[in-house]
Prior knowledge:
By secondary structure, chain A is an alpha/beta fold. Helices cover 49% and strands 20% of the residues of chain A. Chain A has 6 helices and 6 strands, in the order H-E-H-E-H-E-H-E-H-E-H-E. A 6-stranded parallel β-sheet of chain A has the order 2-1-3-4-6-5. In chain A, helix 2 links the parallel strand 1 (18-23) and strand 2 (42-44). Chain A starts with a helix and ends in a 5-residue tail after the last strand. The model of chain A has no long low-confidence stretch (mean pLDDT 93). By secondary structure, chain B is an alpha/beta fold. Chain B has 8 helices and 8 strands; from the N terminus they run αβαβαβααβββαβαβα. Chain B has helices spanning 3-13, 25-33, 49-59, 71-76, 79-87, 117-123, 134-144, 171-182; strands spanning 18-21, 39-41, 65-70, 92-98, 101-102, 108-109, 127-131, 151-156. In chain B, strand 1 (18-21), helix 2 (25-33) and strand 2 form a beta-alpha-beta unit. In chain B, helix 1 (3-13) packs across helix 2 (25-33). At the A-B interface, helix 3 and helix 4 of A face helix 3, helix 5 and helix 8 of B.
Amino acid sequence: xxxxxxxxxxxxxxxxxxxxxxxxxxxxxxxxxxxxxxxxxxxxxxxxxxxxxxxxxxxxxxxxxxxxxxxxxxxxxxxxxxxxxxxxxxxxxxxxxxxxxxxxxxxxxxxxxxxxxxxxxxxxxxxxxxxxxxxxxxxxxxxxxxxxxxxxxxxxxxxxxx
Amino acid sequence: xxxxxxxxxxxxxxxxxxxxxxxxxxxxxxxxxxxxxxxxxxxxxxxxxxxxxxxxxxxxxxxxxxxxxxxxxxxxxxxxxxxxxxxxxxxxxxxxxxxxxxxxxxxxxxxxxxxxxxxxxxxxxxxxxxxxxxxxxxxxxxxxxxxxxxxxxxxxxxxxxxxxxxxxxxxxxxxxxxxxxxxx
Lengths: 162, 184
């Protein structure tokens, strides 16, 4: 996804009362993350479950949060999503990279990339894949969902092999 | 002193502080001894009490946040000590109930006997206090409330005798009343 679009997504979320962007970095949307660091809205956590914990604490303090991660990190987060975020109904927007759906991507992404849609479905985390044309509409969809106390995921595909 | 006795001592000193308590017996004890709307009891997600406490502390800089944690819990999310220390959160008191075992699951050993969690926390910019009696704990807790965090109070405890009942509040109820209490 183009740098300018990634930056627009960040500012759109920021403008709509998302005050915290906590996560583990992903090259797929590095310009989105850089924007948060520049604006002093971002904490880089050591692990994805830690990031979810910090963001949950902020959301419990009535301050809305995004948690970002790679798809490998999403696999690390399954227990925290089910036993913290779902259990207490703490609304978060997850921004998750998606590698491994292209042929010949790096081998560590292959299996987890293939099963990512099924994983999202089986833990019942509502999600949409965002691209350069639908990003605003899908960000608004996510913002509306957290107002209703529902966590959702926005998926950004890695469209180049890195 | 066992965990329940240590929690009783701390609860006798608590006024309007926010408390985040780790899953397992720690949350059950707190619920039995001093149930308050400003307590956030964790049911599952072992290891994350300190991360949740960090998020709350950063967003409520005028309130003191106290995290009740265990050695097994801290070891499961060791990176959290580094994040907390690097952010220099002033309103953060981390209480470690250290019995060197996973007591809630039957007493299996942790590694906190061989590797001191206090030393790792110290390297991570925490101020460290270590206590093993009720008297010391009361004195140190009262003193640390005045100090700038992050602070770790390592409380050496014995294996407990009593197991308190499960938390009878639904998780959503814990969340809702907690959010209301801190938005005042």
